[in-house]
Fold:
Amino acid sequence: MVITGKYMHQTSKKEQKPPFLPLQHAPITLTGGNLYAVSSVPDCQTDRPITYLHTHDSAEFGICLEGNGVFMIGGRIFPFRGGDCTFIPAWLPHLAQSAAHTVSRWYWLSLDTARLLVWAPELVDLDCFHGEGTPSLFPAETHPEENRLIAELFDIVRSPDRAYVARRLSAVLALFSSGLHRRFRPAGDGNGPCIERVRKALDLLFRNSSKPLAVKKLAEACSLSENQFRRVFSRATGRTPQEYLNELRIAMAVSLLRGGTLTLSEVAAECGYPTLSSFNRQFRRQRGSSPGRFRRSLAGETP
Structure:
């Protein structure tokens, strides 16, 4: 089984992957003085099982055109749906998976932020916005300003006027960076090394989120004692392993509820909750409403 239960893909013995997701670098080379690279056609993200994390050497912006699923960015879990936007700093490991039996479509834009913001050194360090203090995914309903600016970046690069593109990209990127500096908290210097020390545990949690938590197994994967693992994990994620697992499960549940094809009991079982009452309790604790109320709100019904 990969990631969750019976509604996700099965893998045969021949297809079974190593126990940990490898980290791969996918370079995006901005050559010939180019300040950006943009996808010419929508990228289709399937529900194919996750087999690796990847990084880029440039900051990457994304717009989800349609679909829903889950995005893992820098060790944190974000449910996404059509209309949401992402900002992923350079070198930050990430991956996405669409909900079971669906495909989501995305546009991607990579920018040379250092050259575009060379005139504003106080705004140039966008790579520091990757920790607990900054959402890497911006839901349309809760972050309209970030979504508007990211959408404007994509609109700008459609112009054939290179001078206009460079000038407007620089201005809009400065507004986006200024907003991040004003509204969010940059990551501390020590977060990166901690994340790397527990990356194998995050991989295991993500791929086995419907199974019971086994802290001993997570600690062994990271070559740490249980006490050491708990301390390092807390510094890296700001959560205990159980809190992180609950957050991951509810993120998965949000994605499945947005898909609208499963009953509440099926969503609960898929996400690792043995009873509907335990699922309701945890969902309400994290989202402030019951799963049923949340689903009705998506349909525009009166809760």
